[in-house]
Amino acid sequence: MRRSLLGRVWPNAVAVLLFVFFVFPVYWMATTAFKPDIDIISRTPDFVPLHGTLAHFDKAVHASGFWTLVRNSFTVTLGAVLLSLAIALLASFALARMRFRGRKAFVLVVMVAQMAPWEVMTISVYMIVRDQDQLNSLLPLTLFYMMMVLPFTIWTLRGFIAAVPKELEESALVDGCTRVQAFGRVVFPLLAPGLMATSLFGFITAWNEFPLVLILNKQSGQTLPLWLTQFQTNFGDDWGATMAASTLFTVPVVIVFLILQRKAVGGLTAGAVKG
Amino acid sequence: MGAQSTGTRTRPPSGSTPPTPPPPADRGRTAGGLAARGAPYLLILPALLATAALLAYPLLRNLLISFQNLNAFQLIQHTTEWTGFGNYTDQLTSSAFWHTAFRSVLFTAANVALIMAGGTLVGLLLNRLGKRMRLLLSLGLILAWAMPFVAGTTVYQWLFDSQYGVVNWGLAKLGWHAMAGYNWFGGQFSTFSVITVMIVWQSVPFVALNLYAGLTTISAELFEAARMDGATAWRTFRSVTFPILRPFFLSTTFLEIIWVFKAFTQVYALNAGGPAGSTETLPVYAFIEGVGNQHYGVGAAISTLTILILLALMSYYFRIILKQEDDL
């Protein structure tokens, strides 16, 4: 291994530049949120804020209906994730452990469904929800978000279930468990990391969803993404408050990502390698 | 949809085992073969029902609406007026549609080229870095990846703000004084530039981290052998890395094409397709025609045409995926 000094330095230098490129928008969002207005509206940007203030967060949190929006977002997201976990657990068990006619066709349906172009289906979804007189309510959002994350959930859980050694289940059957008991006592506890990873990805997708709530819930039942895009219009050019709102919205996602990295990545890859 | 589809799919399957039938003990135990044979169908039934009601039906409904003359008036009166292929012929003969379609294709091509080139370079760099620097860069990539689209949009609006945006300040500082106070959202090209920087920033982490994961599966001896033969970095990439990771590159490119082509949130939330509709891509055009101008039938027809383009792209994608995954 002979590499010149230059050959050893430039990859690190480029890495630092790239790090700055990727982190800077996040950094700028968070620091702007804590800066007093004089430092935000200034001709020379303040890169290292020393005078922190919570005024912008105060303003964002006390914006009208903020807590309702938080509750709506959590209700819709958690509802969608839990529903899809329940449905996917059944289907992925069949996929991973059973052989049946039409299995391949079902796999194909799941794969196609995962690529569903929701962004261009909003008009028909609007008509369907309007027919049911369910505009501005949380139920249709929950159901459609559930459908958005369902294929991915089935697909990943299948991998995790396949990764649980079949011998464990078989020995439980030999010991006199029924199929359902064997699943509940042996497979299910081993699935914990898989369930967590899968549901966290579902959480992110549903938490961030924008096009559907934009068209369905104009008057009420809004969620945080919709609020955030209208924030700037509603508050004028109050960048401090806008960035504080963005930060508040981003924090749960970043926490989820960090959990995923630390705890679930091992499980995720273990499940994935097996296919 | 960066976070949605993870690397689970893109890695070459190692020793994929075909799914085995249920243990024989089971067949004998449960009362009768009929119940056992029905069990898998019962298990997938809820998923099938949900897919039929929440995905297949909206798609079908979209098709039906696209054959209707459905505007604000018909919507309120609850009347159904069929127009046959009227909406389609209107669109396919209008220059606005073709301009938008052409713009969408160009926009997708530019973004995907930048994402794939950037993602590949960053992925290769990750493989070359020492442990500590790799961790640092990965952290940066993950933070950008984790950033929700909507929050990303507000941040980019702030970064590129004409008066107090840090980008204009930086460009002026670097000597480009005309950029002080420049309004990025006032023109077509400049708006697209901001959208592109943002989408590339959001999408490169997915490509780079997955490529790095793929690179670690290539045995180091191959690179060693290439170096012994005096291969340049470019030659090594072309003759060793690329052929081995070809399925990864193909499937990722198609995924990115599909994702960028149907990108709605970023384009709409940043500038709502403005100024004057000059940055509308097909999904945004369908939304603005259909919902904004309340020509739901027309919007549905544009949606259907967009879905057809996406279907063509997806069929290629699935051909690639099915070839590499025989474990179905």
From TrEMBL, chain A:
Chain ranges passing through the membrane: 12-30, 74-96, 105-129, 141-161, 182-207, 239-260
CDD domains, sorted: TM_PBP2
A Pfam family it matches: BPD_transp_1
Keyword Transport: yes
Topology within the bilayer: Multi-pass membrane protein
Span of domain ABC transmembrane type-1: 70-260
Keywords linked to the UniProt accession: Cell membrane, Membrane, Transmembrane, Transmembrane helix, Transport
Main location: membrane
Subcellular location: Cell membrane
Family stated for the protein in its record: Belongs to the binding-protein-dependent transport system permease family.
Record's protein name: Carbohydrate ABC transporter permease
Source species: Streptantibioticus rubrisoli
Taxonomic lineage of the native organism: Bacteria, Bacillati, Actinomycetota, Actinomycetes, Kitasatosporales
From TrEMBL, chain B:
Record localization: Cell membrane
InterPro entries, per the entry: MetI-like, MetI-like_sf, UgpAE/MalFG_permease
Coiled-coil residue windows: none
Biased composition, class Pro residues, residue ranges: 15-25
Chain residue ranges for the region called Disordered: 1-31
Transmembrane region(s): 39-60, 105-126, 135-159, 179-201, 244-261, 296-318
Alphabetical keyword list: Cell membrane, Membrane, Transmembrane, Transmembrane helix, Transport
Domain ABC transmembrane type-1: 101-317
CDD domains according to UniProt: TM_PBP2
Topology relative to the membrane: Multi-pass membrane protein
Chief location category: membrane
Matches recorded under Gene3D superfamilies: MetI-like (1.10.3720.10)
PROSITE patterns for the chain: ABC_TM1
Record field: compositional bias (Low complexity): 1-14
Superkingdom of origin: Bacteria
Family indicated by similarity: Belongs to the binding-protein-dependent transport system permease family.
Protein name: Sugar ABC transporter permease
Record lineage: Bacteria, Bacillati, Actinomycetota, Actinomycetes, Kitasatosporales
